[in-house]
Amino acid sequence: MDQAQSLREYMHRYNIQQEKKQSSRVITITSGKGGVGKSNFTLNFALGLKAVGKKVVILDLDLSTANINILMGISSRYRLADVLKQRKGILDVIEKGIEGIEYIYGGMELDELLKLDQGSLSFFMSQLQELQAYADFILLDTGAGISKELVNFILGSDETILVTTPEPTSIADCYAVLKTVVQYSEQSPRFRLVVNRAQSYREAVETSKRLQNACYHFLKLDLKTLGHLLEDQHVRKSVKAQTPFYITYPNCTASKNMKQIVYSYLPDLIDTSSVSLKGIQGFFERILSLGKSS
Question: Taking Cα atoms as reference points, which of 170, 173, 189 lies closest to residue 181?
Answer without folding.
Answer: 189
